[in-house]
Amino acid sequence: MTVELNALPISQVIANQLEESILKGDLLPRQKIASERQLTSKYGVSRSVVREALRDLHGRGLIETRQGQGSFVTDMVPEPAEDSAFMQSFIGHDSTVFDLYEVREQLEGQAASLAAQRGTREDFYKLTKAFNGLENTDVSGDPQWDHEFHWAIARASHNAVLIHVLSSLDKLMLHSVELCVTKLRSQEKMQQKIDKHHRQIYHAVINRQAQWAQKAAVAHVRYACEQLRKSGLTAEDRKTF
To answer: pTM (2 decimals)?
Structure first.
């Protein structure tokens, strides 16, 4: 790919294109971007031009450089620190745990709808991989596939704001999935219900049924929240947050 000359400096054109990839969600929070050598080859420019483009992105806080590792997309909405007041509010307070599920309900419902509308072939390949992992793995011992399934849908939404907001909640989201797996999946009827929800979400997304995808995702998170309310949270459960 060769960048054509225009009114802007070439380095600015490259920086703008990389910024657009970040804003479209093609480059995700904490994702490593292509190396200087790869960008030089891709755009057909000198390494000094690429470095200038990266300096521009770094100066605007869109990427960060790690010594010996390369450049990575920054979290536009930083994840709260473990000892922050926000994180501490989840310890010992049931209401904040359920507040998180209410937020998940809205965000993941919208993500599923957008994924059905905007998902690419590559997005659906990754979603299918996560879905198959869910179907073929005992998630009661490893909730990672469950978490990855929901993240694959979020990435397929190609909505940068939504992706960055969910990324800022990533640790809490994983904990909420772990809690659901621990408390609910040990009960066969609930596990069957949750598995059914995942299948409904998956098929609605890949068949581009946006409305059904949103309804299925909302129903899934709402069901988990309702069942957790009924079962109650112990002091040990709260420590997972």
So the answer is: 0.74
What are the structure tokens assigned to 161, written together?
């704001």
| Average pLDDT of the segment spanning 142-151 | 83
Q: 13-59 pLDDT, tens per residue?
A: 999 999 988 887 788 888 899 999 999 999 999 999 999 999 999 99
* Residue spans of alpha helices (H) in the chain: 10-23, 36-43, 47-59, 85-88, 94-118, 121-136, 144-156, 160-168, 170-184, 188-206, 210-231, 235-238
Strand-pairing partners, residue 78, are: none
Distance CA 33, CA 82 (A): 27
Q: Does the pLDDT of residue 85 top 70, yes or no?
A: no
CA dihedral 93, 164, 120, 122 (to 10 degrees): -80
- The residue extents of the domains of the chain are 10-73, 85-238
**pLDDT band at residue 78 using 50, 70 and 90 as cut-offs:** low
Q: Distance between the two ends of the chain, CA-based, in angstroms?
A: 46
| 200-214 average pLDDT score | 97
| CATH superfamily entry for domain 85-238 | GntR ligand-binding domain-like (1.20.120.530)
| Residue partners of 161: CB distance under 8 A and separation at least 6 | none
Q: Which of 200, 195, 197, 210 is nearest to 157 (CA)?
A: 210
- Which CATH number applies to 10-73: 1.10.10.1400, 1.25.40.10, 4.10.320.10, 1.10.10.10? 1.10.10.10
Tokens standing for residue 171: 């640790």
Given the DSSP bridges, would you call strands 63-66 and 70-73 parallel, antiparallel or unpaired? Answer: antiparallel
